[in-house]
Amino acid sequence: MARTKFNNVKISGLTTVIASNCESIDDEEELYDGDLDKIRRLKKTVGLGERYVVDDDTTSLDLCAQALERLVEGMDLDKSNIDGLIFVTQTPDYFLPSNSSIIHGKFKLPKSCACIDLNQGCSGYVYGLWVAHMMISSGTCSKVVLLAGDSMSRTVNPKDKASLPLFGDSGTATLIELSSNPLNSYFDLNTDGTGFGSIIIPAGGFRKPSTEKTKIEFEDGENIRSEENLAMHGGEVFKFATREVPKAVESILNYSGNSAKDLDALVFHQANKFVIQNIIKRLKNHDLTDVLIPLDTVSKYGNQGPSSIPSTISDSLRHDVSHSIKKMLLCGFGVGLSWASAVLMMDKIFCPKIYFYKKEIKND
After folding, report:
1. Model's pTM, two decimal places?
2. Which of 122, 141, 331, 351 is an active site residue?
3. Would residue 285 show up in a list of annotated catalytic residues for this protein?
4. pLDDT (mean) for 298-321
């Protein structure tokens, strides 16, 4: 069982950079054949609204690089002291080399800095925190930067009614470091690989390389996509989330020796508002009256994959974590299928407002 307790590691800073191009479901009349009632229903029930997406020249590496720049500048970090770098993404710049290696060179980090890429999606931020905590707790590192971000909008077919209005792009940077004060952190990580096909890009990898045939669009119910586009089977994902996530919340509470009323905040991956509300309904035996549970980040910025949890903290809880000590339960779930939860303390961390990506102007 992948459960772990740490007591000498802390989160010190968190920055979020959102893609700069705003798109709204209100502008998708053509996608829904002019059915304005359907758009209104999706806004009300699913919580779809605005999303911020990259252009064709911008990647998750660009977004995370700016988030790291903000973190280094805002915390006046000595980059020579960073001895661990983790990059969580499903949309790397290349099959190889790793995004973490590229960032290492871009920021001129020390050669002694260990660099790792994690191919994880919506549970990826908690997985990344877990790896960072292990690196520090083992004595290997003292300061680890966790970058988490995706540009999933570039994988979605523009004719896909189910996925197009959902995904937004962002990048985040988190500093995790050795702590002299005991701050207990608890992690519980899980996987059900039998459901790997529920969220998938079928072609373009080595199992099924890109060909002219895999680029051909086809109808899949009401949606249109090719095998090189993201395919998400919403019904299966909904059943998975509402079945496993409430149990995961109860499991991490029991493991950490907490009840729900001990929490200051409960931060779920922002899949969509409908999913989160149904998860909360299944936690009706727990007293969540005074617990902050953000619901609106997905409506403002879209489903941001592995950067969804830190983006939500930056968006909804920035003042809380910046000025006081907060006990938080984080829970991510999605592609894999995988889910991961953590209970940890955030003690007056550096957490500025959300930034929007500024594209660098390159001189020819």
Report:
1. 0.95
2. 122
3. no
4. 96
